[in-house]
Each structure stands twice: as structure tokens, then as C-alpha cells.
Specification:
Radius of gyration of chain A: 24 Å
Order of helices and strands of chain B: HHHEEEH
Helix content of chain B: 25-40%
Number of helices of chain B: 4
Strand content of chain B: 15-25%
Oligomer: heterodimer
CATH architecture of the largest domain in chain A: 3-Layer(aba) Sandwich
Largest interface: A-B, 16 and 14 residues
Distance between the termini of chain A: 54 Å
Number of domains of chain B: 2
Shape of chain A: elongated
Shape of chain B: flat
CATH class of the largest domain in chain A: Alpha Beta
């Protein structure tokens, strides 16, 4: 469809859609688009279009309901006042840290992107840290991604993260240690690479886990500014300890849309598939790498009949045994009696597990799919887009997510199983 | 630590609810088996596994029964559980059916007994005496 816009006309376009500017100029999330520029909007995402002058656009979409004209801009004027406050408070040579908090579907990512784009006019290095592993906009889902922007962008998912940290799950519950360690690690990168760090978070703000993880993030990050994206007072419990001048309350835009569970999954997979698009399969001998966040290959290898692999673990942890099927009493009849707790892992259950390839100093090189642990040749068979020399890979970090060869979600591996 | 950092307690809460609801052992066993099957599918989401488990048991009319379903039913004073093998106009046939009959008193001859066990309620004190506290102590 073709739309003619008068100066200051404001539209919201929902994905999947592609907008092409045919004349004039538009602004979308603080990014100017001119003649010939295109905006590709994925499923589950919406973008605003503000005509900076009389303009026209062509929009490719499934139905016309995806385009809505609003009387006024959905972007509150006060957002630009936040930018002014940040620029005023920011001190040169020190990292200014902003934490964005909000429930799901409160427009945190949209606001984060807008804020970053606006700040880029006055700040050289703006970094966005995406800690929403279930709805990643920066990096592969299941990971923290940090992007140091050099120019304004509409969709962060289109860009390769500057730094990544593997969490290994979409939900932070049961992965608190990785989450908080990842935050510390990313802060280290931000201090070196950026002048302003905007940290976008998950919508998990209530209940035991939500309170615990958000308070821990606040304590670690020690933000200069916390921005609450709230409908009412649902986030106030998280900032009781902070002085008033460090908290901004941002009433959630009415146009912040809700996304269904299936749309969320499709959005995740859309991003995940990008990281498994041009993969190759390669093998890494067990002896060439260490393993992390697992029991496997951290103990002392022993020989046990009827097993593919057996190793004594530390102290009371017992013994990890890998077998072709569930362990039977018959299989164990000749085993020594001092093995302690037997942790039985069935060979093949690891297939599809998403792992991280680690380089020097545990720096993440790439995400990968564990095709198989081959106990006959003592090699990991890995699928990844990693293009470097295999000798750069020093470690393999395990997680809980499984993906298929294309990067689509394929289930879970229980933490502590391997 | 002041908050639960995982949703695992939700699974324990579900077990407590089953006990509080005075589920008979057949129901209890089937519901726990199915709870564990859900958990095995999503082991990183114990809270969701618990939430779904609470919806496992649903009332159903005889006309809506279908082969393959696991059902619980009261027959007279007895409780019966099993998987529906076939359905005819007048009856259903359960396979692997289990029957629970309740007796007010039940006498067992000692010479008939074997594999006798008891519940050792003092086990925490035996294994972890440092974790046993006197509730009345102020």
C-alpha cells in the first residue's frame, strides 16, 4: 500500500512489513530515513513513523490493519528530557550507567533503542547491554549481548554484538550465577568500550526470583539512573533503597503492544536461526579443550565395564557414567563399591545442546550446537558459524537449551545432568 | 538468602496440596508420575511444571471417555485407576488397573509377613543432628 504523509503525521506499522520511503523524509525511533531507505519490520515488532516533511511511503504487508494512524506521536516529549538529564549528569572519563526496568510488553527495548539513538548525537560511545535472554535483541537468545553503537539503529537484532556472554537458558531462573557473572563481565567490557551503558532487562520483576535477580542487578550495576517503565506502581518495590534523583518513572505508552507466547518463540527463533545460518560441522578432541558448567571431563577418568565413559568426580559428588541406555543392576555387578552416587547420563541426550565456544580468558567466541560427544574417538562434534582457527577454542561451556540444526528450539537438558 | 531462587518449591507445594486434598494413593501416584513427565520435558521451568500439574486432573462424563485415557473412578466403596483399553455400551475395560479397597481393620498373620519396613521419622536427626531444632525453645 502507498501512504502519503503530511509533516508531523504519525503512524505505527506492525510486522511483518517492509516500508520504503518514496519521497520526503521520516523519523523512526530517532533514526532519519530518506528517499529509497527501507525498514524491514519482523513479526511481533512495531515501529513508529513520524513525517519530518510531506512524504510518501510504500508499505508491503499482509493486511492494512498493520498500519495505524495516530493523532499525535506515541513518543512522549519527556523522553527527550531524560536525554537532557543524562547529558547534564554525565561526567567525562567515567561510564554513565542506566538500568531500564519494566514488566513484559512495556516497550523497554523500544525505549532503550530510542534513548541510545538520541544520545548518539552527543555521546561518542553508547553501549546497549541486552540481558533479556528470552527475547534477545542483541545476540543469540540464551546469551547476553552488548552492542557498542557507532550510528543510530532501528532494530538491534540486525547487528552483530560487540560482546557476548553465554547464559545457556531463556529464563534466568536456575541460572542466577551465570546471569550475575555475565553482568560483571559485561560491565568490564563496557568500562573499556563505552561512555554510556544502557542495560535492558527481562520483564521478570515480581515474585521471589524476580525480586532477587533485579535487586542483585541493581547492586552489581550501581546505576547512575534507573528508568521504570511502569503502568502503575508495579516496580516501586525494586527501588525503595534508591535516592529520588536516581529514579525516573516513565509511564508506559498505550501503544506498547502485547506479544503472544508463540510470537515470542518465533521472534527468538528468528534471531537464533541467524546464528546457525552458515554453520559447518567440525570435531575437537577431548584433550584440546576444557569443559565448563558441567561434570563431564572435570574428574578422574576410570574404566568401568558396560559404559562409554566413566569418571570419579570430586569428593561426595560420586561418579559420572555415560551409557547407551538406562543403567541396570546387571550392568553394575562387577563395579567397585566405592563409586558413591552414580550419575548416569545416556549417550545421545546431549545432541542439540547449545554450547559456547570459549577462547583465551574464557572470552566467548561463538555459540554452537553440540552434534554429538563421540566416546569412541574422544571428540566433540560441533556445529557452529565459528570461522577462526580451531586452536583458538580453549573451552566448551555447557547450558540447558537444545536447538535443531537450523537454530530452532528443540527442548532442554536438565542442569546438572552431564 | 531471603527469596527462593528457583521455582522448585512450587513442585513441593503441589505435593503438599495433593496430600491436603486427601488424594487416594492411586490418584496420588498417577498425578505425581504425570507431574514428573511434565517436569522431564521442561526441567528448567519447575514453576510451569507445577502450574500445569495442578490442572492435570479434570472431571469427565462417561460419554466423553476414550481409549488411552488414564482415569480414576469410584466403584462402590473401592477406588480404581487404570488406562482405558476399550469401551462398550455398558462398560469400560481398564488395563494395568489398580484397585484400592479400604478396610476398617485388617489382620495379618505374622508368619505371612515378609519384606517388612517402617517409616523412620527420626531420620533427619540421625543423619543431620545439627539441623534439628527444638521448636519450643525461645
Amino acid at each position: 500500500m502507498q501512504i502519503t504523509l503530511k509533516k508531523d503525521d504519525f503512524y505505527i506499522v506492525s510486522g511483518t512489513a517492509e516500508v520504503t520511503v518514496k519521497s520526503g523524509s521520516l523519523e523512526s525511533i530517532a533514526v532519519t530515513k530518506k528517499l529509497g531507505d527501507k525498514i524491514s519490520i519482523p513479526v511481533g515488532k512495531s515501529v513508529p513513523l513520524l513525517a519530518l516533511e510531506d512524504s510518501s511511503v510504500e508499505i508491503q504487508l499482509k493486511n492494512e490493519e498493520q498500519v495505524k494512524k495516530l493523532e499525535t506521536s506515541s513518543i512522549p516529549e519527556e523522553w527527550d528530557k531524560f536525554v537532557e538529564k543524562i547529558l547534564k549528569e554525565r561526567k567525562k572519563d567515567s561510564l554513565y550507567k542506566i538500568l531500564i526496568l519494566g514488566e513484559v510488553d512495556t516497550g523497554k527495548t523500544f525505549f532503550t533503542t530510542y534513548l541510545a539513538n538520541r544520545l548518539l548525537g552527543s555521546v561518542d560511545r553508547v553501549a546497549i547491554l541486552d540481558t533479556d535472554t528470552g527475547q534477545s535483541d542483541i545476540g543469540c537468545p540464551g546469551n547476553f549481548g552488548m552492542l557498542v553503537l557507532d550510528k543510530p539503529e532501528i532494530f538491534l537484532t540486525d547487528l552483530k554484538p560487540t560482546h557476548s556472554y553465554y547464559i545457556g537458558a531463556h529464563s534466568l531462573a536456575m541460572h542466577f550465577c551465570q546471569t550475575l557473572t555475565g553482568l560483571v563481565e559485561m560491565m568490564r567490557y563496557a568500562k573499556a568500550d563505552a561512555d554510556v551503558l544502557i542495560t535492558d532487562t527481562t520483564g521478570w520483576v515480581q515474585g521471589d526470583g524476580g525480586r532477587a535477580i533485579k535487586k542483585a542487578k541493581l547492586d552489581i550495576l550501581q546505576p547512575d539512573l534507573v528508568i521504570l517503565m511502569q503502568r502503575g506502581t508495579e516496580l516501586e518495590h525494586l527501588v525503595k533503597h534508591l535516592p529520588a534523583n536516581k529514579v525516573i518513572r516513565n509511564k508506559v505508552s498505550r501503544t506498547a503492544s502485547s506479544t503472544s507466547q508463540l510470537d515470542r518463540q518465533e521472534l527468538r527463533q528468528l534471531v537464533s536461526r541467524r546464528y546457525f545460518k552458515e554453520t559447518k560441522v567440525f570435531e575437537i578432541p577431548f584433550d584440546n579443550v576444557y569443559t565448563d558448567r558441567c561434570f563431564f571431563k572435570t574428574g578422574t577418568k576410570i574404566e568401568l565395564e558396560n559404559t562409554f565413559w566413566a569418571e570419579k568426580l570430586s569428593g561426595w559428588e560420586g561418579t559420572l557414567v555415560v551409557t547407551s541406555g538406562s543403567l541396570l543392576k546387571e550392568d553394575m555387578k562387577n563395579w567397585p563399591k566405592d563409586l558413591g552416587r552414580i550419575r548416569n547420563f545416556i549417550s545421545g541426550d546431549e545432541t542439540g545442546l547449545m554450547v559456547a565456544l570459549l577462547g583465551e580468558n574464557q572470552r566467548m567466541l561463538a555459540v554452537a550446537r553440540l552434534e554429538k560427544i563421540d566416546f569412541l574417538t574422544n571428540k566433540f562434534r560441533i556445529r557452529s558459524e565459528f570461522k577462526g582457527d580451531l586452536s583458538e577454542i580453549k573451552g566448551i561451556q555447557f547450558g540447558s537449551l537444545k536447538v535443531d540444526e537450523k537454530g530452532n528450539e528443540a527442548g532442554f537438558l536438565e542442569p546438572g545432568k552431564l | 538468602m531471603s527469596f527462593h531462587e528457583t521455582d522448585y518449591p512450587a513442585l513441593l507445594d503441589y505435593l503438599k496440596e495433593l496430600i491436603a486434598a486427601n488424594k487416594n494413593p492411586l490418584e496420588f501416584k498417577q498425578l505425581v508420575i504425570n507431574m514428573l513427565e511434565i517436569y522431564d520435558q521442561i526441567p528448567v521451568y519447575p514453576g510451569i511444571a507445577a502450574g500445569c500439574s495442578k490442572q492435570l486432573e479434570k472431571p469427565i462424563k462417561v460419554e466423553s471417555l476414550a481409549p488411552g485415557q488414564t482415569v480414576f473412578v469410584k466403584v462402590g466403596d473401592d477406588e480404581v485407576s487404570g488406562e482405558i483399553k476399550s469401551i462398550s455400551d455398558d462398560a469400560i475395560v481398564l488395563k494395568k488397573a489398580e484397585l484400592l479397597s479400604v478396610e476398617e481393620n485388617f489382620e495379618i498373620e505374622k508368619k505371612e509377613m515378609s519384606n517388612l519396613r517402617f517409616v523412620d521419622k527420626g531420620i533427619l536427626k540421625e543423619m543431620w543432628p545439627s539441623l534439628v531444632f527444638d521448636k519450643d525453645k525461645k
